[in-house]
Amino acid sequence: MRGILFEAPRRIRVVDDVPVPEPDDGEVLVRCTHVGLCGSNTPQYTGEGRWAHSRWPGPVGWGGHENVGVIVKSRLPGWAEGTPVLAQSKDYNGFVEFIVARHESLARLPAGVEDVAPFIVAQPLATVLRALSKMEPVINRRCAVVGQGPIGLLFNWVLQRSGARQVIALDRMAWRLDWGRRMGASATVDVSHRDAVEAVRELTGGEMVDVAIEAADTPEALALAAQLLRREGCLCPFGVPRHESQEFPWLHALHRELRVVTSHGPGCMKFFQVAVDTVATQRADLAQIVTPRLPWDKAPEAFAMYADPANHPGSLKIVLEL
């Protein structure tokens, strides 16, 4: 089967001699038709932060976890061959043509859908739903989302539809802020041109926000999110840190008595089916961020593009089509 080999930082290639895995009892083999790139793959690809100490080359398929395809072999009761699914590889090496998945990492796609690529967005949507499920309801609350990549846009979309009073989108790229408005933000702040804290203070009439989501995976973004909160506000550090440790304004957080809610890991799988069902019913909204779609042999270009969004306007949830 085909797979992506990470040979060294910023150097990958597609190989076609990878053995097809065999599912064990309670597992299925999925032939993937689409694989999505995630922000968490970027420092892995560039070799930044904690990834600088990785052993190269990585295993084939290293880090892939957003897969859509069809079950071609099943040893799991109730999951028949031919079933279209959202799936996550059991070994987290999903940049390959065939993956083995277990029951907890599967969700059924609607039958008869010709274009299943938009369902890639269900995986990151599930992570957003899980994070918000750990917080108090956002109805009538002021919210800020720092970072307007695919995850930030999904937070905008869910917050706006969950009854948030205000959704303020922040980023340093104007083209991403345009998307922020399209995906539910009521106001935007270009942090490359304005003092973000003062801008949010103006937008909230001096009250600041009740909830701040960090969706940019940098220390600067997390520190900014903390500065936007009112006293006893809720901070959600969502972006996967690139370093084992980093600076954070803890004295400010202490004085403001901020509440910190984290969300990371396999718990999002419990939200896979509801995320798939949401994409099925809200396809017109959510499918638009699944762009661009590139053929499998363009994987090197896709990763380079994902790592440099400033120079690739319009590149959001990049998907490889097998």
Number of DSSP-assigned strands? 15
The CATH superfamily of the largest domain is Medium-chain alcohol dehydrogenases, catalytic domain
Supply Rg.
20 Å
What is the correct CATH architecture of the largest domain? Answer: Alpha-Beta Complex
Classification by helices and strands: alpha/beta
What are the secondary-structure elements, in order, as H or E? EEEHEEEEHEHEHEHEHEHEHHEHE
Q: How would you describe what is shown here?
A:
The protein is α/β, with parallel strands linked by helices. It folds into two domains: 3-123 and 268-321, Alpha-Beta Complex (Quinone Oxidoreductase, Chain A, domain 1), CATH 3.90.180.10; 135-260, NAD(P)-binding Rossmann-like Domain (Rossmann fold, 3-Layer(aba) Sandwich), CATH 3.40.50. It has ten helices and 15 strands. The protein has helices spanning 41-46, 122-133, 150-161, 174-182, 196-203, 219-227, 250-256, 272-281, 283-286, 299-306, and strands spanning 3-8, 11-15, 27-36, 67-74, 84-87, 98-102, 106-108, 142-146, 166-171, 187-190, 209-214, 229-237, 259-260, 293-295, 319-321. Strands 3, 4, 5, 6, 7, 14 and 15 form a seven-stranded mixed β-sheet that branches. Strands 10-9-8-11-12-13 form a six-stranded parallel β-sheet, with helices on both faces. Strands 1-2 form a two-stranded antiparallel sheet. Helix 4 (174-182) links the parallel strand 9 and strand 10. The mean pLDDT is 96.
